[in-house]
TrEMBL record:
PROSITE patterns, A to Z: PROKAR_LIPOPROTEIN
Protein name per Swiss-Prot or TrEMBL: Phosphate transport system substrate-binding protein
InterPro entries reported in the protein's UniProt record: PBP_domain (IPR024370), Phosphate_ABC_transporter (IPR050811)
Keywords: Signal
Gene3D superfamilies, sorted: Periplasmic binding protein-like II
Superkingdom of this protein's organism: Bacteria
Organism: Soonwooa buanensis
Presence of keyword Signal: yes
Length: 290
């Protein structure tokens, strides 16, 4: 009889533990997670997370801004639930994802951003740049291009575009996309390289102030000149267009996957559009006339 009581007690203890474990899992409508993104995508990341939390008041998405490569390592080590990426993963990185996360490889694409090349308003000598000239500048000891630092999304993306190692590139550094814009007038012979998202929000006070300080240079490729307009991003004609996407290590439909689904469906894509970026998933707008 005593043994039977112990068995029953153990049975209910296990049920209680499993129930507590299940209840501890977050859901799309409740819970707390961490999301990591490069500072280059701060504006659109903030807009999406703030909108999602407003629609789901019982959720909390803690956004941490860190270098893209560090974010990927944190995802693999399960220190964060979701990350924003802009470059393609290498074969070894995909292998690490498959081994550590053990989930299908499903990047959730949600926006088209771009790498833009800017000069201060006072700089009247540089009117445009060619792709070939950018490649020369990024290999020159003059270090005439200013990036926001090593291992950032911006430097990794341009290295991937030119099929070279990021460590082989030569450039100057001012930490932070916004700081590059604010300090560019001190360096009249240099060109800032920032994310479009830093200045793309049409009516944001900070974005307007930053845009007033710079000229965005058209990029010439194969004899044609392109600016980072929404239309050129949509067609991927602007040479340094890049697609932003989410990766997660969440193996169930929790807060991470709930947020990603929101960002990639119509409400989230409207937020992306209001950020001045090109939504990756396009929705038809139908108007009924009576």
């Amino acid at each position: 009889m005593k043994n039977s009581i112990l068995v029953v007690f153990a049975f209910f203890f296990l049920i209680s533990c499993n129930k507590s474990k299940t209840e501890a899992l977050d859901t799309p409508n409740q819970g707390t997670i961490t999301l990591e993104a490069d500072e280059s995508f701060k504006s659109v990341t903030e807009a999406l997370t703030e909108r999602y939390m407003a629609l789901n008041p019982s959720t909390k998405i803690n956004v941490v801004y860190t270098k893209e490569d560090i974010g990927l390592l944190d995802l693999l080590d399960r220190k964060t639930r979701v990350i924003v990426m802009s470059r393609n993963l290498t074969k070894s990185e995909k292998d690490a994802y498959d081994k550590k996360i053990n989930l299908p490889w499903q990047p959730a694409k949600f926006a088209a951003d771009a790498l833009v090349f800017v000069v201060s308003k006072e700089n009247s000598t540089i009117k445009e740049l060619s792709v070939d000239e950018i490649k020369k500048r990024i290999s020159s000891d003059e270090k005439s291009l200013i990036f926001d630092g090593a291992n950032s999304s911006n430097i990794n993306f341009i290295a991937q575009q030119f099929n070279v190692k990021a460590s082989a590139l030569k450039y100057s550094i001012i930490k932070g996309n916004e700081n590059i814009v604010k300090e560019l007038e001190k360096y009249p012979n240099k060109i800032g390289v920032i994310s479009l998202n830093t200045i793309s929000r049409p009516y944001g006070d900070e974005a307007i102030m930053l845009r007033d300080k710079i000229n965005v240079l058209p990029i010439v490729d194969k004899g044609k000149s392109y600016t980072p307009t929404v239309d050129n991003l949509q067609d991927m004609q602007y040479p340094f267009t890049r697609v932003l996407y989410f990766l997660t290590n969440e193996a169930y439909y929790g807060l991470g996957n709930g947020f990603i689904r929101f960002a990639c469906t119509q409400l989230g894509q409207i937020v992306v559009e209001k950020e001045g970026l090109q939504p990756y998933n396009l929705y038809r707008r139908e108007v009924q006339m009576r």
